[in-house]
Design brief:
Elements (H helix, E strand, L loop, with lengths): L3 E4 L4 E4 L7 E6 L10 H19 L3 E6 L14 H9 L3 H18 L15 H13 L3 E4 L2 E4 L36 E6 L15 E3 L1 H13 L3 E7 L3 H16 L4 E7 L2 E3 L2 E2 L10 H7 L2 H8 L8 E3 L1 H25 L11 H17 L4 H19 L7 H18 L12 H22 L3 H13 L2 E6 L2 E6 L1
Length: about 475
């Protein structure tokens, strides 16, 4: 079947047909870098990472752009989030942006999220934003008041088409702080004049000021992807006002469609409640990584469909952890058996089972990137793999290698939850594995010499560091608890 995507713009599942055959242009709203990233960021950006991975796995050449917001994201009070954090820490705004920008990138790397092809920042694209604002003023979709520029929502008849909010239903309470200047309560700031104490400011045709939150994405998406591109990603919490305002200002400025497919990630709760520092349930990615392996935390982010809400709890995480350990336990055993397996397969037909798994996996992913069902395919495969590996049949290297390649391909390349090596695929991991195997070989020698006291000592010492041995007819295998 062809890839189908649930397009929020229209509220239905559609066949994915890119603008240019074989190529995909994709923009995702990145975080505002004023604090450490939290579990909501993990769910969102791991989900879009899997989307990009699967598109590339399917043969598309993907250009993936994800911005970092480092100015203009105002609170309801009208205060810039980065400026507020800078005052709290007695730092410069750019210090805050650099510190938390690096923190975000480190968190994404820990979760095996591939970096976007281009990661622009709002402050690096002020000229492009000013140019777009000038185009909106010239086409009478925006107006200037006392050094600030606002978009006139009444000038766009289809305003609200993404969120399905009618203009007459819009109320004050958007992120702008000067409402008396606006012609309509829903008008939003494209450019804000800088008050005397405002540190982040740039020259513009309307005086010194700074860009609004929404204009940055429109300007940067156009610069790197063109006026019209394939996929726009974001979080459902930002469908209004951010995404709605992106669409209207872009299409009015460019006189062209903006993004053709809109994908919005569902919200995240903690123990059934919205995550909030005031509720003391705010969990950063760094905190969660203290309790769980990166692969487990990543798997939790895609254990629910990207469009569905997800709840983070100790109980749910234990289930996900157990599920991941079953998957990787089969992978680990396969890799260990490859070290001593004979070349021949004695007519084993398990390759057909692997082909079936790949077909089923692709069908699930083609259905709007259904990662929970894709993981279920791997879990079903794992049951059959364990049955095979624990049978009395002689399993040759060709079959074992095919099993390992299938896990690497589906669970590694696409989902990013199966590491290539035991502990992250670096030289230290290889050395650790070699040392463990050396101790297992020493234990085997002790057993052969009937030195059972030494054999038991080596087993117990390995158990102390979490390495559990299992003696089998075809040798000893190990796992990490």
């Amino acid at each position: 079947m062809a890839l189908r995507i649930h397009n929020v713009l229209g509220r239905k599942k559609q066949d994915f047909i890119p603008l240019e055959e074989g190529r995909v242009s994709m923009y995702v709203c990145g975080p505002t870098i004023y604090d450490h990233s939290h579990l909501g960021h993990a769910k969102s950006y791991v989900s879009f990472d899997v989307v990009v991975r699967y598109l590339r796995y399917s043969g598309y050449n993907v250009l993936y752009v994800q911005n970092l917001t480092d100015v203009g994201h105002l609170q309801v009070t009208g205060e810039d989030r980065i400026l507020k954090k800078a005052r709290q820490l007695q730092s410069l705004p750019m210090q805050i942006a650099e510190m938390y920008g690096r923190s975000y990138q480190a968190d994404m790397a820990a979760l095996n999220v591939l970096p976007p092809d281009i990661q622009p920042r709002a402050t690096g694209h002020i000229p492009e934003q000013i140019e777009m604002i000038q185009e909106l003023i010239a086409s009478e979709h925006a107006y200037e008041v006392n050094g600030s520029v606002y978009f006139d929502v009444t000038s766009a008849p289809d305003y609200g088409k993404l969120s399905n909010r009618r203009l007459e239903e819009q109320e004050e309470g958007t992120r702008e702080d000067v409402r008396g200047e606006k012609h309509h309560a829903a008008d939003f700031a494209l450019w804000k004049r800088a008050e005397e104490e405002h540190i982040m400011r740039w020259n513009s045709p309307w005086g010194e000021g700074f860009p609004g939150w929404h204009i940055e994405c429109s300007a940067m998406a156009k610069k790197y992807l063109g006026a019209t591109f394939d996929i726009h990603g974001g979080g459902v919490d930002n469908i209004y006002p951010h995404n709605e305002n992106e669409i209207v200002q872009s299409e009015c400025a460019n006189n062209a469609d903006f993004a053709r497919y809109w994908m919005l990630v569902g919200s995240l709760t903690v123990e059934g409640e919205k995550m909030s520092k005031s509720l003391d349930n705010f969990v950063t990615i760094k905190d969660a990584l203290q309790d769980y392996r990166p692969e487990v935390l990543r798997m939790s982010s895609i254990s629910a469909h990207y469009r569905s809400p997800m709840d983070y709890s100790a109980e749910s995480m234990q289930g996900i952890k157990a599920g991941w350990e079953r998957l990787f336990g089969a992978v680990r055993l396969t890799r260990q058996m490859m070290n001593t397996a004979p070349e021949s397969d004695a007519g084993n037909t398990f390759i057909e089972r692997l082909d079936k798994a790949k077909t089923n996996f692709t069908e699930r992913m083609d259905d709007d990137f259904n990662t929970p069902q894709a993981i279920a395919v791997l879990q079903e495969l794992t049951r059959d793999v364990n049955t095979l590996l624990n049978s009395d049949s002689e399993i040759g290297l060709t079959t074992l290698k095919a099993i390992n390649d299938t896990y690497n391909e589906l669970g590694g390349t696409v989902l990013g939850i199966i590491p290539e090596h035991e502990r992250g695929g670096n030289m230290n991991a290889d050395r650790e594995n070699a040392l463990i195997q050396m101790l297992i070989d020493m234990r085997a020698q002790a057993r052969a010499e009937k030195n059972f006291a030494e054999s038991d000592r080596l087993r117990d010492e390995l158990a102390k560091i979490g390495v559990i041995l299992e003696d089998r007819a075809d040798g000893t295998v190990w796992k990490v608890e």
